[in-house]
Amino acid sequence: MIQVKDIKKVYNGVIVVNVPQLQINKGESVGLVGNNGAGKTTLFRMMLDLIRPEAGEVMSEGEPVAGNEHWKEYTASYLDEGFLIDYLTPEEYFYFIGGLHNQTRAQVDEYVAGFGEFFNGEILKKGKYIRDLSKGNQTKVGIVSCLLQKPQFLMLDEPFANIDPTTQYRLKTLLKDLNKNKGVCTLVSSHDLNHVTDVCDRILLMEKGRIIKDIATSASTLAELEEYFAIGQTHHTSLPVDEEENH
Amino acid sequence: MISNFLRHELKAFWRSKNTGKSIGVRIVMGLMILYLLVVVGILGFAMDKILEKALPNQDIIVAFCGIILIYFLFELLSRMQLQELPTLRVQPYLHLPVRRNIIVGYLAFTALLSFFNLWPIILFFPFIFKVIAATSGGAAAGFIVAILSISIFNNYLALYLKRKANLNGWVFVIVTIVLGLVIAGDFAWHIYSVRNISYSFFGNLLKHPMLALVPMAMAIGMYMLNFVYLKQNLYLEELSRKKASYKTSTDYPFLGRFGSIGDQVANEIKLILRNKRPRSAFIMSAVFLLYGLLIYLNPSQGSSDWWRVFVGMFITGFFIISYGQFLYSWQAAHFDGLMVSKVSFTDFLKAKYLLFTAVSTAAVVLSIPYAYFGWRTVLVHFVMYVWNLGVNIHIVLFFANRNAKRIDLSKGASFNWEGVGATQWLLSLPLMLGPYVIFLPFKLLNLADVGLAIMTVVGIAGIVTRSFWLEKLVKDFYKRKYTITEGFRNK
Hints:
The structure holds two protein chains of two kinds. Chain A is an alpha/beta fold.
């Protein structure tokens, strides 16, 4: 489904992303972990043709992502609040996104109504613009607007951050259901190792722009990851500042 | 602690987005401020001469005493509109072990750092030194104290009212109306004379300089009122946010016919109506509909095609120019989202065409009453309407591809330099000069009609070949896409 070939991104002489080869197949659920500044968001942005790589390219369904728009048909993504039109009400935003995928308002209403529990009564018909919602609720709007698009490939950047524990569990169930029962390919980054090993069958570990581990999730994965991150803590190497996350 | 605050304040100023922008913007900004200072300075230094000329049969000191309060009345009005509340800047200190009195005192003090407090000094002090000090000596000190005090009083009154207005929008309306009535009561209805009131105070001040203590007490009182109010309400939410009203979802059924393009136009209309800065750009273009009156009522200009072309361009195209100069920047905050959603860029541009066409059409229809100044005026306006849609839209879109500056929609429009760069200066050249390049030679040959006809033809040609230009613009955009998206992500 997605192929990353020799992709490289350099900011001020520092290599932020350097991935020689990465293949994500249909129906896979992939988790991306790594410390701040590892290059996760930059990689995501390049996969969405928002940043031009210095070298290499990203292919989606065999065609390059850059300069093409075919992938927008089946790819849904939520990276940060910058993906939301913040002066719209959540309803208006859902109608807009649904409209792009030829859904009528009634269809959108019906689909979104199914997320009553997920929204916990804080989003729909509250008479607020998206910009007036809390960050966690904005994340919820972003996630549901992704699902509304009925994607075959779903990209979420740290969806578990900012949302409450109950919603985290609901989101995990949702993601598992999408992947296992509807065959949606998911790519999720997270700092929460428990969640990511729970949801994903395959874990990619990034460090300083490189994918240093690519493992199928097993009973020992969590321990393995915890060990890796704990080492970083004891030695306390200075972390490079992430261009994307610290603006 | 105060010195720390001040140091932070200076850093905030120098490092803010508006001051840290490109050198070009800074130079122009500096020149404009310098120009204002010089103009006001000249006014101040020549005050005695000006008053002599303007009111030849009156003593200049009497005249001077008369205008002071009038000045402060108008100053209060403009402070209400333009002066900014120094509120959010204290947020990072509230949770630290800093005494509240210091924070509030600092907040109240920085409120004095406004250009508004500089003008009366430049405007009135030279006269005080030149004339009053020379004739009445010690009274000059009284004048200085009184003027500074009234300025400070105005400063805190305006801020207090603005804070109240933040909680309840009606306060603003009522205050503006009251001030308007006070001004009208003098200048329109002649019930009383602010000038006489002003003179009765300042005239007596000449004899009894101690009277200056009255405005001083008022200033201190107003400062205390602010201080106490701030101290009791040092909760950011209450100070800075309006009471949230229920926001309804709106839908424009007539745009539904245009499918996804219509949806995008609907979004953009909401963008304009729901955000401060684009809203003022829009309101300005409505106000500019009246611009023609200013020109046409002047008999020497009313019958000249030269002016008709100029006015026609602005009336029918002001929105294209004022909103278009920051095109895409308005959407900077969610540009990433637009780029990854199923919006083809061609449709994105078509939505801009639709929006501009709709607004310009509304403007040209609304400008038909200018027929009062002769049908030729309306005719020229229509020619300029066609020109705007055929030529200026494309110019604006071409420059939009070259603009990668983010705009924060929530900030007000006045004195907001965010998003301003070389693009805007460059853009104005072809927009302003374009029509004259064609019109001027024909006009000089006394063939104005031919010039207008050719402009119409060029405009129509531009409209007919839209899809061709559209394709070029899309290609051009993809060459710059990454620069634009990155620029917009740069807060």
